[in-house]
Write a structure and sequence with these properties.
Helix content is 39%, strand content 18%. It is α+β, with helices and mostly antiparallel strands and 250 residues long.
């Protein structure tokens, strides 16, 4: 398909040479149009959509749509208001500002908030999983991070039969490899917040440090502070007393 791209300008020029009754039926890649002649229906399946175009006007049906076979002819398309009669050639109902149209000519797609769109490519699927994985790590949610990695593995399998020439597979494998490395690092360092576990010991050492400072034993005070720092605890002296927190590497 990468060798047969026309573009709007060339397509419009070719359309001008077509008889008035001829229309263009466009099926996106990784998409199927299933025709049931017995039932008289057409169903759109897959990752993309179906575009029916005639004289520069288009009807777009997303994946999951089912329509009568007669509606494959744009001459039978009707205005979204349900007015009788086919749309005249060259007419186009007013589209809402968000470009979403429930029927007739225009973009017949639900709003993005109404469904989770499947990734249009393996690269897009990898980036979706990478985003989920990163958010899960920030939340220290190991289960969700692992689920994102497994979903990417499944996406790589699902897209394994894709015949398009691209580097999406290498990219996805690289993302998956980085996830495995990060999960391994997480297993080594631990995902749980260490603060509750170390709090009693840190606060005891901070108390001892405060007593050393009150006794002007700054050597002992500095030794305690340096020891805490080496264990990944940052101590800050404030006007209201010392505070502490684990460093980002702890």
């Amino acid at each position: 398909t990468r060798f047969c791209y026309l573009g709007e300008r060339r397509l419009a020029a070719l359309e001008a040479e077509l008889p008035d009754e001829v229309f263009v039926l466009g099926v996106d890649e990784h998409t199927a149009l299933v025709l049931d002649l017995a039932a008289g229906t057409a169903q759109v399946l897959g990752n993309g959509g179906l575009t029916i175009r005639r004289q520069g006007l288009s009807v777009v049906h997303p994946s999951g749509s089912e329509l009568p076979l007669a509606d494959l002819d744009p001459a039978n398309a009707r205005p979204p208001s349900g007015a009788a009669g086919p749309l005249a050639a060259g007419s186009l109902p007013n589209l809402p500002s968000d470009g979403v149209q429930s029927g007739g000519l225009g973009v017949n797609r639900p709003k993005e908030s109404e469904f989770d769109s499947p990734a249009p490519s393996l690269r897009a699927a990898a980036e979706q999983c990478r985003g989920r994985f990163g958010s899960a790590l920030l939340d220290r949610n190991v289960d969700e991070a692992a689920a994102a990695a497994l979903d990417l593995e499944q996406a790589i399998t699902d897209w394994g039969t894709d015949t398009l020439s691209s580097d999406d597979g290498d990219h996805a494998h690289g993302v998956l490899r980085s996830m495995v490395v990060e999960l391994g690092e997480l297993a080594r360092t631990g995902a749980a917040d260490p603060t509750p576990a170390i709090r009693p010991y840190v606060e005891l050492l901070i108390t001892l440090r405060s007593r050393a400072r009150e006794a002007n034993d700054f050597v002992a005070s500095d030794q305690i502070r340096d020891s805490l720092t080496s264990f990944g605890v940052e101590v800050r002296d404030t006007a209201t007393g010392p505070t502490w927190s684990p460093t980002s590497s702890s």
